[in-house]
What we know:
5 helices, two-stranded parallel ribbon, mainly alpha, disordered N terminus
Amino acid sequence: MTRVNYPSMKRLLSALSIIIFSVLSLQAAPVYADNLAYVDLQRAVFEVNDGKAAKARLEKMKGQRQSALDTKQKDLKKLQESLEKQADFMSDDVKAKKAEEFRTKLGELQQTYATLQRELAEEEMKIQQKILGQMGEVLKAMGEEGSYTMIVRKDALLWAPPHLDVTNELIRRYNGKDQVKSPRVKASKKKKKKARRKAKK
């Protein structure tokens, strides 16, 4: 009686599973492809109106901090030049004090630069989190209205056809949400003004 080779059987079943999965995937692909979409969130965050305004604030903040950094850098350069020119005429004690002063100012410059980088990174993170939170609501509405199976991030994909990219639609809708809300806000303000006028009368 021939004995069954179980390891070979397992390999055969594994191979069959791969083949079946591949065939099913090929059959299913055309059905679900049109229900998928992706967005480039990194681009969207700084192309919406809120993102552009936030970017301008970041640039202004960077410019202000950079000014302080440039001042410290110039002071350090002057001190270095002074040390190099007068080194031969200085006593050892004076040289030691000047060298210590130079190290202190260098440390302050490095600290200022590190603080600048940290503050900018923290501010950018806050901006992104706020905008992304609001984008989540917009994407949810897009997904429900468009009957998408899912909307994924572009950076999570290896490849996808361009027609599945809904980034521009996300930007348009995000910018449009403020225009939709503004008439209601204006109407509310008008009602409050009328109520105040009546109260005065």
